[in-house]
Amino acid sequence: MTTEGARLLPSARVAILGPGLIGGSLALALQRVLRADQLLVWCDAAEERALVSAAGLRVTSSLEESVQTDVVVLCVPVQAMPELVARMLAFLPARTTVTDAGSVKAPLLAALEPMLGARYVGAHPMAGSEKRGFAAARADLFDGARCFIVPSADEDRTRIVEALWKAAGCHLERIPAPTHDAIVARVSHLAHALAPALIRAAARHPSKPLRYAGPGLRDTTRLASSDPALWAGILSANRPEVLDALEAVGAEIAGLQAALRSGDAAIVEAWLAQARILREECAASRPEVAP
User: Fold this and answer.
1) Which of 10, 138, 142, 181 could form a cystine bridge with 169, CB 3.0-4.6 A?
2) Are 76 and 17 in contact (CB under 8 A)?
3) pLDDT of residue 5 exceeding 80
4) What is the pTM of this model?
5) Is residue 130 within 8 Å of residue 222, measured between CB atoms?
6) For 22-42, how does the pLDDT look when each residue is reduced to its tens digit (9 = 90+)?
7) pLDDT tens digits for 102-117?
8) Which residues pair with 222 in a beta bridge?
9) Facing residues of 59 across strands?
10) 289 falls in which pLDDT band (50, 70, 90)?
11) pLDDT in tens, 132-167
């Protein structure tokens, strides 16, 4: 958490639309630095509203009430955001800045900018879990995490969105939408595609080997427990970059297959050694590993 971000939001009223893992964690993070009357959570489901209210947060089922604020944060699945924004337009004040936490940016920019213009500032915090719902939310989820910002043409709106994510505990990095999507396809989306592939491949053998799986397979395939509907939407939205990343994985697998067919263990060891070096460089260079 940072107080610097909170100082840039001295009286701003923030509405979070969708209190799942990300939206709920953002609400809990901002609850640490904003007054109760500055923060509002919108949710359709009565059961979820009860959980949010029990956490001491203001909650509403009225979309119109939610957007009568200074900043609206879209925390619903990426495929649901355009329709939700279309519903908001009839009563969205001109002063209100709209941002999001979606893990795909170019498709959202193409869909939302025609409706919102410079009022839309894209954002994506690189934090998360295979768990879902407000019950999994936690106030420290974004502490030390990187948050990508796709700036608007309106610098003031971009700065208030940056202040919001800084107040939640994030380190900020401005980035063009296409570059963002290329990066996250390889450091986040690819893992969400490969974890199910690994568990499916292991399960194919007639000996039913999953009965004997140890921590190696369980740890490697943790992301296969993620919400299928949510990740189908994300992978589909970032389809070109995910396909390119999967082709790169195919090339790596082909290289390992060729090394194994050669019977030369030194080639296999060199392949593994290079991967180990890259993994260590990755761990050392990033303050927060993407989920």
Assistant:
1) 142
2) yes
3) no
4) 0.90
5) yes
6) 999 999 999 999 999 999 999
7) 999 999 999 999 999 9
8) none
9) 41
10) very low
11) 899 999 999 999 999 999 999 999 999 999 999 999
Q: Give CA–CA dist 179/181, Å, rounded.
A: 5
Burial-class residue 183 by CB neighbours within 10 Å (0-12, 13-18, 19+): middle
Nearest CA-CA partner of 180 in 189, 168, 171: 189
Mean pLDDT for 73-99 is 96
Q: From residue 257, give the alpha-carbon distance in Å to each of 78, 212, 263.
A: 37, 25, 10
Q: Which two tokens stand for residue 285?
A: 């260079």
How far is it, in rounded angstroms, from Cα 275 to Cα 262? 19
Q: What is the mean pLDDT of the chain?
A: 92
Beta strands in the chain (DSSP E): 14-17, 39-42, 59-60, 71-74, 97-100, 120-125, 146-150, 171-174
* Sheet with strand 171-174: strands edge to edge: 59-60, 39-42, 14-17, 71-74, 97-100, 120-125, 146-150, 171-174
Q: How would you class 182 by CB atoms within 10 Å of its CB: exposed for 0-12, middle for 13-18, buried for 19 or more?
A: middle
CA–CA distance, 87 with 63 (Å, rounded to integer): 8
User: CA-to-CA distance for 101 and 92, rounded, in angstroms?
Assistant: 19
Distance CA 36, CA 100 (A): 21
Residues 103 and 127: their CA atoms lie apart, in Å, by 10
C-beta separation of 157 from 121 below 8 A: yes
- Judged by DSSP in three states, 203 sits in helix
Q: What angle do the packed helices 106-116 and 177-184 form, to 10 degrees?
A: 150
| 37 alpha carbon, distance to own chain's centre | 27
Residue 8: pLDDT band by 50, 70, 90 thresholds? low
